[in-house]
Structure formats: C-alpha cells, structure tokens
Design brief:
The complex is a heterodimer of chains A (112) and B (111). By secondary structure, chain A is mainly beta. Chain A contains no helices and eleven strands. In chain A, strands 2, 4, 5, 6, 9, 10 and 11 form a seven-stranded mixed beta sheet that branches. Chain A has a four-stranded antiparallel beta sheet with strand order 1-3-8-7, with no helix packed on it. Chain B has no helices and eleven strands. In chain B, the strands form two sheets. In chain B, strands 2, 4, 5, 9, 10 and 11 form a six-stranded mixed beta sheet that branches. Chain B has a five-stranded antiparallel beta sheet with strand order 1-3-8-7-6, with no helix packed on it. In chain B, a hairpin with a 2-residue loop joins strand 6 and strand 7. Classes of the chains: A mainly beta (112), B mainly beta (111). At the A-B interface, strand 4, strand 5 and strand 10 of A face strand 4, strand 5 and strand 10 of B.
C-alpha cells in the first residue's frame, strides 16, 4: 500500500512552459485535492475532486487545470507556468468528507 | 470562505513543559477541525481531529479543545519532547473536503 504518490519530486520550468504534476493513490479514496504551500502562507487549496468525473475549484485555482478520469489519479496541469507558481505542491486524499487527509510527499516546482 | 488564524506564530518551550497553540475560525458552520504536524522537508501528517459535537479529545500527550461559541480551538501538547519540534497547522471545514488551513505555528522544544 503506497498511499499517495506524487511525481516528479522536483521540477524546474521556464516561464510559459507547461507541465503536469502526477498524483496517484491506491487506497480507493473518493476525495482528492491539490494544495500549494508557500512560506508563511500555510496550505492553500487549488482544486479538489469528490469522485471520478467530478472536480471543483478551491481557493487559488487560476493557472491550474485538473481532471479525474479514474478514482486513482488526479493530475494537476500548469498550461503556461509563471514565476508566481513557484511553490511546493501537495496532493492529498481521503476516503470520506470530514476525515483527515493523507498527503503525498510533495513536488517542489521552480519557475524561472 | 472560511478564514483560519493561528497564534502564536512561533513557540519555544523547554523539554517536558506543555505547549498550547490556539486557532480561531470565522465560519460558524464549520464542523470539522483537524491538526497536522509537518516536520522539516516532510509532508503534513494528521495528528488529531475534533468534530463540533465534541468539546475535547485526547490521544496520549496530545489533546484538542473546541469552543464553538468563541469560534476557537486549541492544540495541547504535554510533556514535550524534542521530536515534537515541527510546524503545526490547524484547519477547519464544513465537512465538505474544502479544508481551510491556518498559516502554521513553529514549535521548538529546547532540550
């Protein structure tokens, strides 16, 4: 049972490039979410999903797209990276609303 | 949306003493309040949570108390140990998976 797996762990992009952060969980969790963590800002919700085919915006969705074609996977896409998207990104999942989140190890993204 | 604030931002305690971190929230409809611990370079991990129908919950050296009237909840760590040094995040939600996190408290346990 691997839990929540994120790839890549580190990535450097140039402004305007696109990329996808991958997230997969093997716990059959319906609920998945993406957070970004910036120094002194805590964790801010980007997008979340309550099941396959269903996604919704969080607190800071601009510049990011998501999709949920399977229960296991919840990729986060940056279509045109900007320096303001330099951050550590965490994917998290839970089996049920109102339960604690299980986080992935994080992906550190730098946009030059 | 929900706004969660944590105080103090940094807390230093002597090993063996108690540490208390307080969070306030803005939305009276919030009913789920978890606490996460994040060690340097690691992922956040759930350490304890409480729901609005309970006033206090304990798990060994850790406890959380909730005051719905005042809209605040606190994390209590007793008999602190060096491994308790970390950043602690509180969060609140209406049970809808839209967790709003505070900005975190750095706890330093001095041996």
């Amino acid at each position: 049972n691997a839990g929540v797996t994120q790839t890549p762990k580190f990535q450097v992009l140039k402004t305007g490039q696109s990329m996808t952060l991958q997230c997969a969980q093997d716990m059959n969790h319906e609920y998945m979410s993406w957070y970004r963590q910036d120094p002194g800002m805590g964790l801010r919700l980007i997008h979340y999903s309550v099941g396959a085919g269903i996604t919704d915006q969080g607190e800071v969705p601009n510049g990011y797209n998501v999709s949920r074609s399977t229960t296991e996977d919840f990729p986060l896409r940056l279509l045109s990276a900007a320096p303001s998207q330099t951050s550590v990104y965490f994917c998290a999942s839970t089996a049920q609303v109102g339960r604690g989140l299980t986080f992935g190890a994080g992906s550190r993204l730098t946009v030059l | 949306g929900e706004n969660v604030e944590q105080h103090p931002s940094t807390l230093s305690v002597q090993e063996g003493d108690s540490a208390v971190i307080k969070c306030t929230y803005s939305d009276s409809a919030s009913n789920y309040f978890p606490w996460y611990k994040q060690e340097l370079g690691k992922r956040p991990q759930l350490i304890i949570d409480i729901r609005s129908n309970v006033g206090e919950k304990k798990d060994q050296r850790i406890a959380v108390t909730l005051n719905k009237t005042a809209k605040h909840f606190s994390l209590h760590i007793t008999e602190t140990q060096p491994e308790d040094s970390a950043v602690y995040f509180c969060a609140a939600s209406q049970g809808n998976n839209r967790l709003a996190f505070g900005k975190g408290n750095q706890v330093v346990v001095i041996p």
